[in-house]
Task: structure prediction
Amino acid sequence: MKRYLLLLLLATGVHAQSSNEFAALVERVQKSPGAVSADEVGKLLQLSKELNRPYTAAIAVKAYFSQNLNASPALLKAAAENAALAGDFRTAASRYKQYLRAVPDSEVAAQLYQLQLDFLGATDDAYRFMDEFGDSLR
Result:
């Protein structure tokens, strides 16, 4: 029984530390989105996934992308996944499109099409994107 309590206390401490780091990153990104590094935003997105707090991260990440237009493909993909988890399907679709223009990836294209067709009802947009970039996504 003592082992379980010790493990529970250790896990709670790690969770609290991650939660504090997450809150600090959210605050930093929201206060000065132009001064934050891409690595910090990547860490924010990683922590949001671990802590199951995609909505909070999505708000901060939107501020970052409003100031930083040339993000890496990896950051675009992570931001798209986070936006989808937060239920912001339009932003997720936009980030997936940006990612796919840089890195053709058929699995990510499938996720984009699913968002467009199932959640946004954007059939015209899905077919237009497929027509324009479909050959590179096979």
Notes: The CA atoms of residues 14 and 20 lie 10 Å apart. Helices lie at 2-31, 38-51, 54-67, 73-86, 89-102, 106-119, 123-133.
